[in-house]
């Protein structure tokens, strides 16, 4: 859905029901921009905002307010993967009333991540880049498709004084700028299998031959502990910090209450033993692989591939346009420790996508500089 931007828009708070009703009119919205996500991030103060053209609601944003240490009256106003507006329109008309509203209510800065792509690379291009010693990062690849809307948004944010927050390696404290996505629109299961590499097809067949069974948890609350135990094991093996079990319990409760089909837990078992588990979140036509876990034992039965294929098939059956495998780094150097992740995702076919990324607009520069210094010292 696109529409021309009126010359004057107003921004004001809206209720969760009005916010959700607008989200349901859009084909694709990040789950981070749903009212339920504000209930998941309980350590932040959540607020639903609406953009109005007269009485008509034409855009929404979930804002998460984070207080400044020792300066609680000021907040960082964060819109993860949002807001939900027409990014092809006049950005000043959309963002100026947002800045005015938030500054008046104590925000010292706005941080947002426009859901707008800038560049796309095919799976074949990525594989060629990994094999080419002269290529070290995705942006070094030639032949990418550049999105003109993304280029205009990036240029206008620079001109308007927004500051990019995108780390060089693609991963930071916010949400990833580089993602891997599998387009689904107009395709069949056979098309998708043909688009995968030989190793992925072999692994899917191997899981089926070994008798791996993938089920969707009917009562996720009862199965979340098993998922979380496996997830903690995965975190120890792959050296990342796991989220606590109550986080997932809150996530399932909040998202399921908003829409029974919003979030699903997939469990892959071999001879009754849990070997892999994944979480899928869907808003409209956008399906997201949100979390995954796998056992170091019985890796040869390929439970992770079985879970992924089950989620892809369900997303396709639900009429989704894209299966989003979330973050990757732009590194293509085979010596880089993150290349294994992109190799795994490239095997699905699909494409690597760079987004506009996250940007800050300082509204109170002195407070913003103090906050920035505080955050740098914590890293």
Topology, number of strands:
16
Q: What name goes with the CATH superfamily of the largest domain?
A: Gcn5-related N-acetyltransferase (GNAT)
CATH architecture of the largest domain: 3-Layer(aba) Sandwich
- The name CATH uses for the topology of the largest domain is Aminopeptidase
Question: How many angstroms does the end-to-end distance come to?
Answer: 40 Å
Q: Could you list the spans in which at least 5 consecutive residues all have pLDDT below 50?
A: none
Mean pLDDT: 93
Helix percent band: 25-40%
**How are the strands ordered across the major sheet?**
7-6-15-9-14-13-12-11-10
The secondary-structure class comes to: alpha+beta
CATH C-level of the largest domain: Alpha Beta
Number of domains: 2
Topology, please?
Elements (H helix, E strand, L loop, with lengths): L9 E4 L2 H8 L11 H6 L4 E9 L2 E13 L2 E9 L11 H14 L2 E6 L4 E6 H9 L13 E2 L1 H12 L3 E2 L13 E6 L5 H7 L2 H12 L3 E4 L3 H19 L6 H14 L4 E8 L2 E11 L2 E9 L8 H15 L4 E6 L11 H8 L4 E5 L3 E4 L2 H14 L1
Parallel strand pairs: 4-5, 13-14
Antiparallel strand pairs: 1-2, 2-3, 3-4, 5-16, 6-7, 6-15, 8-16, 9-14, 9-15, 10-11, 11-12, 12-13
Helix pairs in contact: 7-10, 8-9
Which features would summarize this protein structure in a list?
seven-stranded mixed beta sheet; Aminopeptidase; alpha+beta; aminoacyltransferase activity; 2 domains; cell wall biogenesis/degradation; single chain; PG_Glycine_Bridge_Synth
What does this structure look like?
- The chain has 379 residues and is an alpha+beta fold.
- It has two domains: 10-113 and 358-378, Gcn5-related N-acetyltransferase (GNAT) (Aminopeptidase), CATH 3.40.630; 118-146 and 177-355, Aminopeptidase (3-Layer(aba) Sandwich), CATH 3.40.630.
- Helix content is 36%, strand content 27%.
- It contains twelve helices and 16 strands.
- It has helices at residues 16-23, 35-40, 91-104, 123-131, 148-159, 189-195, 198-209, 220-238, 245-258, 303-317, 339-346, 365-378, and strands at residues 10-13, 45-53, 56-68, 71-79, 107-112, 117-122, 145-146, 163-164, 178-183, 213-216, 263-270, 273-283, 286-294, 322-327, 351-355, 359-362.
- The strands form two sheets. It has a nine-stranded mixed sheet with strand order 7-6-15-9-14-13-12-11-10. Strands 1-2-3-4-5-16-8 form a seven-stranded mixed sheet, with helices on both faces.
- Helix 8 (220-238) crosses helix 9.
- The longest helix is centred in the middle third of the chain and has 19 residues, at 220-238.
- The two termini are 40 Å apart.
- The model has no long low-confidence stretch (mean pLDDT 93).
């Amino acid at each position: 859905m696109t529409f021309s931007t009126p010359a004057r828009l107003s921004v004001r708070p809206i209720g969760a029901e009005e916010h959700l009703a607008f989200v349901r009119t859009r084909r694709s919205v990040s789950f981070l921009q749903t009212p339920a996500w504000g209930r998941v991030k309980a350590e932040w103060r959540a607020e639903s905002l609406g953009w109005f053209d007269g009485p008509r609601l034409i855009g929404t944003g979930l804002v998460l307010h984070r207080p400044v240490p020792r300066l609680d009256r000021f907040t960082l106003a964060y819109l993860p993967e949002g807001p939900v507006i027409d990014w092809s329109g006049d950005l000043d008309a959309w963002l100026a009333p947002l800045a005015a509203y938030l500054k008046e209510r104590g925000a010292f800065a706005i941080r947002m991540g426009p859901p707008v792509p800038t560049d796309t690379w095919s799976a074949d291009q990525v594989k060629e880049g990994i094999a080419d010693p002269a290529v070290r990062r995705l942006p070094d690849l030639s032949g990418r498709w550049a999105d003109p809307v993304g280029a205009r948004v990036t240029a206008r944010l620079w001109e308007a004084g927004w500051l990019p927050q995108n780390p060089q390696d693609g991963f930071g404290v916010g949400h990833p700028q580089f993602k891997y996505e599998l387009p689904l629109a107009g395709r069949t299961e056979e098309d998708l299998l043909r688009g995968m590499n030989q190793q992925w097809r072999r692994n899917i067949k191997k899981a089926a031959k070994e008798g791996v069974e993938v089920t969707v948890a009917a009562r996720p609350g009862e199965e979340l502990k098993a998922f979380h135990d496996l997830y903690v094991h995965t975190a120890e093996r792959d050296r990342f910090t796991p989220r606590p079990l109550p986080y997932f319990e809150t996530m399932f409760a909040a998202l399921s209450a908003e829409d029974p089909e919003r979030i699903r837990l997939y469990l892959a078992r071999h001879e009754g033993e849990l070997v892999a588990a994944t979480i899928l979140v869907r808003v409209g036509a956008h399906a997201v692989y949100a979390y995954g876990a796998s056992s170091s034992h019985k890796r040869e039965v390929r439970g992770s591939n079985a879970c992924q294929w089950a989620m892809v098939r369900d997303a396709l059956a639900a009429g989704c346009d894209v299966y989003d495998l979330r973050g990757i780094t732009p590194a293509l150097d085979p010596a880089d420790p993150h290349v294994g992740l992109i190799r795994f995702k490239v095997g699905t076919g699909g494409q690597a996508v760079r987004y506009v990324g996250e940007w800050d607009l300082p509204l109170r520069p002195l407070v913003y500089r103090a906050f920035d210094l505080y955050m740098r010292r914590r890293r």
